[in-house]
């Protein structure tokens, strides 16, 4: 899942870069899995996504941008499930394409939470300290003197 997400983010970042032609051929070959006709079909789909992405970026249509990335993430995930060798090939390809990414795309992070119900804040990151969250309408339990808390008032 993480590899597919990273691949989709890289693809979308490259679609709006000067390096797209070079990346497009390599990505299509990955999806084509040695079938030139399949590779050409994927190139056409990539070109269509790129045109749609360009229009969405110009108009600030973030949901469309997210949809394009989600579409390619899903396709990558399916490819990785269907072909165990594809994961190693995708990792190698991402390493080779990383230097071609525009600065803004290289550091872009897109997080999505799906499934289940979140009853409070969701935090992703690194080195969090001193965070405190309270639930509305729920009183904190009284301090426990055995745990070093103050004696309750009487």
Share of residues in strands: under 5%
Count of individual helical segments: 6
- Envelope shape: elongated
Could you state the order of secondary-structure elements as H and E? HHHHHH
| Largest sheet descriptor | none
The percent range for helix content is: 55-70%
Overall strand count = 0
Distance between the termini: 56 Å
Helix/sheet category: mainly alpha
What low-confidence regions span 5 or more consecutive residues with pLDDT below 50?
none
Average pLDDT metric:
79
Q: What is the radius of gyration computed over CA atoms, rounded to a whole number of angstroms?
A: 23 Å
Summarize the topology.
Blueprint: H1 2-15, H2 20-32, H3 36-59, H4 62-82, H5 84-97, H6 103-106
Helix pairs in contact: 1-4, 1-5, 2-3, 2-5, 3-4, 4-5
Q: What does this molecule look like?
A:
- By secondary structure, the protein is mainly alpha-helical.
- The protein has a domain at 2-102.
- Helix content is 58%, strand content 0%.
- The protein is built from 6 helices and no strands.
- It has helices at 2-15, 20-32, 36-59, 62-82, 84-97, 103-106.
- It is elongated and about 80 Å long.
- The model has no long low-confidence stretch (mean pLDDT 79).
